[in-house]
Design a protein that fits this description.
The structure is a single chain. With about 240 residues, the chain is mostly beta strands. The strands form five sheets. It has a four-stranded antiparallel beta sheet, with no helix packed on it. The longest helix has 17 residues. It is elongated.
Length: about 240
């Protein structure tokens, strides 16, 4: 069926309801809608400013980041500018990171973050794969009263997002901080990341494939059967 997500969902709901009335009870997991929109709303951080960031299990500093001088604050003040009033502060992480490290402490540390999201009904669950890009609104202030745009194509930023895990409508990831990687200099970075399911490429798939698809799909070398169909999906990259 082709149509708007809301219309196909309404139709599926009706089929499920009628199947229950007649005793057929079609399983809910056997309904799938392919839609570019898979979330009810964007997943955002939920920061508690009264708590310090949590190290990830892969962090070189397995006890706490505060030993490296990394700490969560409400106000950013570098002596030139003050970032105090932030809309929706629970969605904005504000960290103070030391500009230099000694030979006795690691140059990298990894913090753990969790995002909760709500999937739209009938959409495919996400696989443990995600990608991100630096938003074009990201900028940097180097001891002046003005911010300048960061190069969104540059990999030289003091923060990378790694180790994606999707479980029970929850996305977990690590923020890998390089204490020595300040390509623009010492100052205030405003980094905005947009996170997406991994793009389809080669054998990589952004979604988990339901196991029951194999029972419905007709193999290339199998004799045609009326109760099954041959499923071939052609992506823009030419993969099927």
């Amino acid at each position: 069926m082709l149509g708007r997500y809301s219309q196909v969902k309404q139709y599926f709901d009706k089929i499920k309801s009628e199947s229950q009335n007649t005793g057929l009870n079609f399983p809910a997991e056997n309904f799938v809608i392919f839609s570019t929109q898979i979330f009810e709303k964007p997943a955002l951080l939920q920061i508690n400013v009264n708590e310090q960031p949590i190290p990830s299990s892969s962090s070189p500093t397995s006890d706490n980041p505060q030993k490296l001088g990394i700490r969560r604050v409400e106000v950013i003040n570098d002596g030139q500018i003050v970032m105090k009033k932030v809309a929706n502060p629970q969605n904005v992480e504000r960290l103070i990171i030391p500009s230099q490290t000694s030979n006795n402490i690691p140059k990298e540390t990894s913090l753990k973050y969790t995002l909760k999201y709500s999937s739209l009904p009938y959409t495919l669950p996400l696989a443990n794969s995600a990608s991100y890009q630096l938003n074009g609104d990201s900028d940097f202030n180097n001891n002046t009263k003005e911010f300048k745009k960061l190069d969104t194509q540059s990999s030289l930023i003091p923060l990378q997002l790694t180790n994606w895990q999707f479980t029970d409508n929850q996305l977990e990831f690590n923020a890998l901080i390089n204490l020595d990687n300040n390509p623009q200099g010492i100052g205030v970075y405003r980094l905005i990341f947009d996170v997406f399911p991994e793009k389809i490429s080669g054998s990589s798939r952004p979604y988990q494939v339901p196991s029951w698809w194999k029972n419905w799909s007709l193999g290339e070398n199998e004799i045609f059967a009326g109760d099954r169909t041959y499923i071939a999906v052609l992506t823009p990259g030419g993969h099927s």
